[in-house]
């Protein structure tokens, strides 16, 4: 499949200080691409370069195989919400949308109604924007960004300032958009916000890429399996042999009378069936997916994460 957006070796230097360095990103059609990093990591700078709002110092950005600078109308291809949305508070949602449509020299009532429906603002379309919640304002701004029917939607920290209910709504909304075929690039400094919606993840720290991979693969490779049993030693021996026979090199340990398989690489139901068949007493199997979070916390707290770039391979 041809990527919709490809960022290759992208760099940005401000007065001799490199704030984004040799960044690679690959976004496929239909992805919700989570772009993660602590504050100051270089997310906004990267997004601004992608959108052509600032000059890049090095590298290449391709949209559907074409150099970004050669696109005739980048903002028709890429809708964005980069700063606090510039809405007119004394106009209604529908009037705001109509105004922005007019600015694009278009009058398409059906498209407007379709967008209001899409961003779940049909009911509130005739209320003044000053009465909207922040989440509603964000969604209206997204509707405005979607006016030219872009193929990619770029959202820079869209959940900033939203309360937990607003964040949940935004997540559901993004999933709905993606379900309708939209490709989305979303940045955040919070892993758990992204983890629940993204299909692909890129983490940057200090302007450099820490990892990039499909989320499923990352979760898999950062998921430990804990086995609770009355016979930990026997289970430990069995599991070690079972993993070896299947060609896995995952580390297995005995901890607090439980058996722990780090980065469990297989189907837990299969292992469970094999253990039960061998007559081993298994009381519980628990998947722990906290290691991705641990790793991200280490990064955001300024520590060093020893994680390589993954592009279709393993961590
Ligand atoms: N115009 C500029 N001139 C000099 N340095 C800049 C400029 N814009 C950004 N930077 C620096 O580049 C680094 C990356 O900033 P950027 O805003 O891209 O990070 P971010 O990951 O988006 O973080 P945040 O979420 O806090 O905005 C920061 O150290 C910032 O101070």
From TrEMBL:
Keywords for this protein: ATP-binding, Nucleotide-binding, Transport
UniProt xrefs under Pfam families: ABC_tran
Residue ranges occupied by any ABC transporter domain in the UniProt entry: 5-231
GO MF term (any one): ATP binding
Signal peptide extent: none
PROSITE patterns listed in its UniProt record: ABC_TRANSPORTER_1 (PS00211), ABC_TRANSPORTER_2 (PS50893)
Assigned protein family: Belongs to the ABC transporter superfamily.
Protein name in the entry: ABC transporter domain-containing protein
Organism of provenance: Tumebacillus avium
